[in-house]
Structure formats: C-alpha cells, structure tokens
Amino acid sequence: MPEQEQPETKGFTRPTQHDDMVISQTEAIKAMAHPLRIRLLGLFRPGVELTATQCAERTGESVASCSFHLRQLEKYGHVERAEAHGKERPWRAVSRGFSVRPDLADPESWPAAKAFGSMFVAEQFAALQRWLSDAERDDPDWLYATTQTHQEYWVTRDELDDLSRRLEELTAPFRGRAEDPGMRPPGARRAHLFGAVWSEIPDPEGEDA
What we know:
The protein has 209 residues and is mainly alpha-helical. The chain has seven helices and five strands.
C-alpha cells in the first residue's frame, strides 16, 4: 500500500507505528466509527486469515453482519481477500494498524474523528473492564505486573508532543512477535497498552494554578 501523507498542525507531525495506515478523509474516518469493525480488525493480527463465519464465532455477531462490515473494511483498504481454500474465502489484514489524523482543512473531518474517538475509547474501556472482572482468577505474579494510572502535570506544547511520541513507541521492542511465534520468549502472553495524552483547554476566565 502506498505511503499516505500525514496531515500537519502548526509544524508538528506525529509518526505512526511501522506499517500503520493513516486515516484522514472524512468518509474513511466515519467508516471506522463502528464497534464491530474495530473488533473485527482486532481479530486480524499479522499472519491471521479468517472467514466471515470464523469472525462471527469470535464476535458473537451474525455471519451476515460480519460479511457486511468486512466488505466495508475492504472498501477503505483495511482488509482484503486471502487465497481461497476450497469453498472457504478468508480475509486478511492489509496493514498492521491504523492512526486517525483528521484533516483540519475539512470542517467535517474533526466531528467524524471525535465520534470515532469516543467509540474507540468506549471499546477499550470495555475491554479493560472485562479483564478486571476476571482478574482475580489470574496468577498474582501476572496481576501485580499490570497497572492503571493517572498523572497530572504542566507541560509545554513541545513537551506534550514528545510525550505522545514516546508513548506510541513503548511497544517497539515487541514488534514482530505477533507474526513470528519464534520471537516470543517462553511464557509470553498477549498484552495490551491503552494510553491517552491530552492537555486541558484553558478556562477563558483564567487557568487554575
């Protein structure tokens, strides 16, 4: 897939993870604002091929619904048909992941990105809640290796941008392990990192000290 130009804001650009697709067009962003499509993309890890029937089994949705949403994901370049195996017609991912970067020159792009962001955060929160509901069943050594944290601090625009970049790069040492099981150390598990970095919008009556 050809590399897509990333939108710029005040001279700053955010690099994406290797092989990530950058989504900037309004219609493409709107197409991602659906919980099932996010869940479907999560199934297609590198090297994984799945049929609509297999996707339905993993998501609890109907085959028809999965087929429809897979076709929509195909339309916007996220998945494609893999080689058929007899009567089975599996799908596979086109890119490793994606990054939403609204085009601020398009007045409809930012509302679409906000709708997607709200849905995405809700989905990640639900996944964390599911883990919390079962956490007591896990090995205490693994349980105490997890964290949920909140920090508050004062930063400049440059410092906030740098922090965002470094957060996105935290998982760089683990790249390739999804595709190649031989790269995984003994006892490795699939893990998740979900983070958000933002600054409070100043109060027009005066920012709190």
